[in-house]
Amino acid sequence: MALTKQQQFFAAGVAQGMPGEKAAVAAGYSAKSANSYASQLISNPKVAAEIERMRSKLEVVALGSKAELLNMLWTEIGKAIAEGDRINVTRMGELWLKARGELVAKHDIKTDQVIDLAWAAPVEIDEAEPCE
């Protein structure tokens, strides 16, 4: 079943950053029940999918064409590599893959701490003594 015009207007309002209650009123739902309508609409899988679709379109439109976006991200990746900024290389790389639709999975790994261990000599364990 396709979305109604009111549902589409609601989705557009939320995608543009309106709070749910205000988006419901703007879409023509009753002001008295706007909070209830907003809650129902946001939990509706079809409306939620439309909101996400509209948000992604708005991001691309705000930044320009997809090719412009990819070129901009690629330039930023090059700058981050030249500066040795591994965190921004990772961030820009993730955005670049998302824009291309190639991001399969994301795993957060903290790289801000690196521990360098050096061993003076191997430790010998006497197996006859119990460990405490």
Describe the structure.
The mean pLDDT is 77. Helix 1 (5-15) packs across helix 2 and helix 1 (5-15) packs across helix 4 (45-63). With 132 residues, the chain is mostly helical. Helix content is 61%, strand content 0%.
Task: Based on the model shown, name its key terms.
132 residues, mainly alpha, Arc Repressor Mutant, subunit A, 2 domains
Number of strand elements: 0
Total separate domains: 2
Roughly how many Å is the radius of gyration?
A: 25 Å
What coarse outline follows from CA principal-axis ratios?
elongated
What is the CATH C level class of the largest domain, in words?
A: Mainly Alpha
For the biggest sheet, the summary is: none
Classify the fold: give the CATH topology of the largest domain: Arc Repressor Mutant, subunit A
Parts with pLDDT < 50 across at least 5 consecutive residues: none
Look at the structure and give the mean pLDDT: 77
What is the helix fraction of residues, given as a range? 55-70%
> What is the N-to-C order of secondary-structure elements (H for helix, E for strand)?
HHHHHH
* End-to-end separation: 67 Å
The CATH architecture of the largest domain can be given as: Orthogonal Bundle
Beta-strand content: under 5%
The total count of helices amounts to 6
Structural class: mainly alpha
Short recap of the structure:
With 132 residues, this protein is an all-alpha fold. It has six helices and no strands.
Task: Present the secondary structure layout.
Layout: H1 5-15, H2 20-26, H3 34-43, H4 45-63, H5 66-83, H6 86-100
Helix pairs in contact: 1-2, 1-4, 2-3, 5-6
